Amino acid sequence: MKFIIKTLGCQSNLNYSKSFYYFIKPFSNINNIYFDILLINTCSVRELCHKRIFFLLKKNYKLKFLRIFNGCLINLFYLKLIKKSFVNIIINNAFTILKILIYNFYFYNCKQLYLKNIYKIENYKNINIIISEGCDKYCNYCIIPYTRGREIFYDLFSIFKNILLISVKFKEIYFFGQNVNSYKSFLKDKIIKFYLFIKIINEINKNNNYYYLTSNVKYAILYIKIYKNNKFLHLPLQSASNSILESMNRKYNFNFYKSFIYKVKKHLKDFLFSTDIIICFPGEIHDLYNKTLLSIEKLLFDKSYIFIYNVRSFTNSIFFFNNINLKLKKKRFIYLKKKFINNIFYINKLFINKYFYFILKNILLSYNHLFFSFLNNRKIIFFIKYKYLKINKFLKMKIKKIYLNRFFSFFI
Ligand code: SF4
Asked: Keywords on this record (predicted)?
């Protein structure tokens, strides 16, 4: 039996695909199963993405696949998917009982099952830990709150347990969730918010690096001790114009972001930030776009994910009047991209002749003794060492040269 996993969308989906792989792998050794498995981890953020999924399903309709569906699109279209028999099994991240579902399909030809919200983190080999699901922020351009539902948080003790188990093997842990920094849990009668949670795990296991993406910096606090190990943070600014942020229903203003970044950089000079920017949102006149452009230079974002605003059905922003033409959208996109690339050039130069501590991640070519790893600010370092080095070993190196392409920099 073969299985194919198709992943669309965000890091959470990638993480679910990895979990699925571990659960499904034992099936691949069974020879007399008459079907292959196709799992699609769906995404609904962009209209184009959901069209692609339906196209894929229709194209493979006649092939003998057991079609399993996961991800946020199912909450929008599960009735359509089941009625038209595009899928056999719909799971909502319920990987732990996936085996039972597949047996049911195999022995009883039980074709359509729908399970909702049965979550468990069991994959100790994975360094990604999902701590929350769903979102309560309702940004006007985003479909996530309607597809993934209201925010829920995993239990504090099960997260601690997972961290302790995986930290034997891994030194870098990523927290995922739609809004990690709105995380809340209870310890007796005390409420534990995200930054207290990070503080506690930092105290329990000081040797690990913890990474996370935050969607709303409004709740971010400056706790330098946390950031000493992890010198990278993703802050999705979206726009530097307060009026655009307001019409997006983002609950912060640009100055808040700016002062947070300045404070962090004051204490930790080599700290880097990445961001998401949406350009050409309805009402973004040229002056407001220019504000974003200038702020990119001021705040020195190292990586950026720039999106041209697209109308997404089921969201509030479809009612907004948008008169920016395609030619202008493309022009703005290219110009902003250039600014970001200049930033990367500038930032990378600051690292030359500096020393860095890092954990060795991989051996690229053992014959040529070529190694590579990530620094704690997520830059990639390549080096040659004519000596056997163990993975996960702590190293100290001086950056000598930097090569840059569009996407990332190489340190040699
Ligand atoms: S914070 Fe806004 S953009 Fe992010 S998932 Fe929630 S609604 Fe969507």
From this structure: 4Fe-4S, Iron, Iron-sulfur, Membrane, Metal-binding, S-adenosyl-L-methionine, Transmembrane, Transmembrane helix
Please indicate whether residue 213, judged by its CB atom, sits closer than 6 Å to ligand 1: no
Q: How far is the CA of 294 from the centre of ligand 1 (A)?
A: 25
pLDDT of 299-326, one tens digit each?
Answer: 888 888 899 998 888 888 888 988 888 9
If one counts the domains in the chain, the total is 3
Task: Return the structure tokens found at 412.
Answer: 């040699």
Same-domain pairing of 65 and 24: yes
129 lines ligand 1 (CB under 6 A): no
CATH of the domain at 268: 3.80.30.20
Work out the number of other CB atoms within 10 angstroms of the CB of residue 140. Answer: 18
Report which ligand 1 atom has the smallest distance to the Cα of 249: 2
- As a whole number of Å, the end-to-end CA separation of the chain is 44
Determine whether the shortest distance from the Cβ of 144 to ligand 1 is under 6 A.
Answer: yes
Q: Tell me, yes or no, whether 342 and 383 share the same domain.
A: no
Q: Mutation test of ligand 1: which of 133, 136, 139, 148 has the most ligand atoms closer than 8 Å to its C-beta? A: 139
Pocket of ligand 1 contains residue 145 by CB under 6 Å: yes
| Two tokens, residue 316 | 């509030």
**247 against 107, higher pLDDT:** 247
On whether both 163 and 254 belong to a single domain, the answer is yes
Scanning 170-268, the segments in alpha helix (DSSP H) are 194-204, 224-229, 242-248, 254-267
Which residue among 298, 321, 349 closes a domain?
349
- Is residue 122 a part of any domain in this protein? no
Q: 222: domain range?
A: 128-349
The whole-number pLDDT of residue 26 equals 72
Cβ atoms of 28 and 2 within 8 Å: the answer is yes
Q: Mean pLDDT in the chain? A: 77
Shared domain check, 337 and 252: yes
pLDDT > 70 fraction of the chain, expressed in percent and rounded: 77
What are the pLDDT digits (tens) for 204-219? 777 677 777 665 555 5
- In whole angstroms, give the CA distance from residue 382 to residue 405: 14
If one residue of 135, 146, 150, 305 were mutated to test the ligand 1 pocket, choosing by the most ligand atoms within 8 A of its CB, it would be: 135
Which run of H or E residues covers position 402? strand 402-404
- Tens-digit pLDDT profile for residues 162-196: 777 776 666 677 787 877 878 888 777 788 888 78
